[in-house]
Amino acid sequence: MTKSYLFSSTGLIALARYVRADTLFAFNLDGILGQNDAKCPAAYISEPVKTTLQRLMDVAKVIMFSRKSRKEALVVLGFEPHLLIDNYGIERASQERGRNWQNVRHCLKWREQVYDMLSDVQGVEIEFLGESISLHYKKADDPGKALSLIKTAIGKLKPLPRMIDGKLVVNLLPGNALTRGETLVDTMKLLGSSKAIYFGAEGYDEEVFRLTDADVFGIHVGKNEQTAASHYIHGQSEILGLLNSMVDILETS
Question: What is the C-alpha separation between 83 and 105, in angstroms, rounded?
Answer without folding.
Answer: 27
